[in-house]
């Protein structure tokens, strides 16, 4: 059985679980409002400290917010707050460059990162509970001693990294420049929200060391920060550690809240932006009340009613009924100075943007004139409540600790959760109608239309940076020599990873259960042991098409009825596939689990495959395929799969398959795949959450006990027959970056080398501090990030080194990648590097089981790959015993440079001359579907 750490009640959240109604059609009672047991104090220097004690896992989330973002930027330095976020990860007086990442990863940290919003900048780590002091040491030295060693070299490197990030996440991201134009249309040039958070190339490059110093001195003092520590802590000891590391740091000058008036939009603003996309997309934006002000909650509900999934008005009208849109969305984006309400709609192939706009206007007019129904408001509220509760299922990252800092920033009350839910519950249909009328008028909006065409980006050549100085720029705080010594870890906490309990129904269905009463939530996955690799060679993508059809109607429920019923329950239902599995996932409140499970059971066992719905979904999948062609990351993945496995192998394609296969799949094909593979012998129902095993067994037996089917199918996808070429190029003219994949066929999940490969890959490219990322990002500045991974399928999956690099560094990046692969083969890992890679794998394991969904996915893997139920209990010792010799042997066995294929997606006329000298042979050209171009 799991240790008490994994099923202890989450004492911080007073979650009072309403019983599941006996009548599945009965309307469940509202989930009682939770409260968060936090303690907030302020240090003498102004640092706000928020502590939350939670013993469910032996981990601690450390989440530090500085109350500064683009809202505080100086004109002409747009994106500076984000650039500065990157600077904070460089060297400090007592922590040399790169040491913090190495120590934290080696200590088992997860979710170590930072983020910049319009009003704040955050830094966070989740660490084993005995490493809290290490995380505080790192964060405190950044706050107190960054300026002491700041130099031009560090600034120049991060300017390169951030510009790569901008190219990758804005310019090469489909519709990225279109969305950026919306903010520029909503806000005047002198407004801090006018620019993208990441800023422009010119502004990023214009930053100087003096700007960095001034920004730090003004905004990065303890009196402008709040620190949340949530997890397995002793509060008095945690307070003492915070006082030790942060208490002596000097205040910065008081920071006044930005006093900026946002001028209203009094006449409609219209902009057309050209982008490297095939389908038009329309963005509509309005200025709305700031976060947590009157009207904010009403508009959040309006966004859910208009664009919150398949039950929303825009989806039903534009996607489902009229079939003129590929996808729709709506959001109330709540910020400190003012918020924005945004609707985005992507056209189906052949549909013009003006038709989309007219259809959205009609739905907006209807909502203004008649308002929503009470049932729509209830449905939207239920969905938002479940989403909010599920967000605190996780301690670190964007979970509980971050949410408390968010509430503290905008309301001054870290425990605002119950009030947040209560404000949603007070909203009436009339309130929503009034807010829509007040704020979402046609003359008060900006409309930005993205159309296919040549993208125009201002990416000036970087000027020659100033010479790097000595780095001694003078600090703010007096040096304290004791800080130079990294703190030692406390006693290692005992932990047992979840094992779950497994049962089989008489019909062969496996039931895997993990009891976790931390929150009134239940996560469910129905896992079928057949995925895209089980599709016939002539119909790649059939498994995904079949899974998609499950939500589109049963013998007793239509597609709209399924969507409405799930949304009314405040649940989330989804389907998908991987190479080895088809999955139906469900997230629900404890109180609505039974009726939500009714829907899941119905769609899995009784799909109707209506012909009209098949045609709708056929068009949808073709639209997804068109969008996939616009995304260079997706193109590189599909091209790599095709090159490795060949066109006759089901793994030679993406999950969507090909357009000919989508067009030719018949109802008989879809129903036939379902009949063969969706059988109880081939499936498991994995449930993690607040439901006892006895109750779960009764519910599952009643809903799945009569499920009958043939014997579970066998089968093998066959032998790969990939290309003999070593270099694959997909031409994306004018692309600012090159997306790279260096790939080969790896190993299956049952490989005896699993533990050694995990440690080896961690050192090579699996960790942020890995050799690949340190070389190409931190040292060379070629990339925003380069990583590697093995995909362990039932039959050998791909090994991939992936990253997006500067166009003019394409050849140099490939050369460095092969250099690192060779080095991994040629020499054993040094003891310190081995220990860090090994410890990172072992000590981070508890952090990978934070949420019910995480636990469910891990238990599903046990079923999918036939692992023993005590697998996770034994895994830590297996990894901990890996030696340097075993790592080198695994590298020599599984990393053969001569078998690796380089896939490059970018501007061929600029990158081919760089790749030719590498001795990879003639380039094989493929199209944006990953298919060979016949020459």
UniProtKB/TrEMBL annotation:
Residue stretches making up the Peptidase M16 N-terminal domain: 53-190, 516-625
MF terms in GO: metal ion binding
Residue span(s) of domain Peptidase M16 C-terminal: 209-384, 665-839
Superkingdom of origin: Bacteria
Region Disordered: start-end pairs: 451-493
Family of this protein: Belongs to the peptidase M16 family.
Name this polypeptide is given: Insulinase family protein
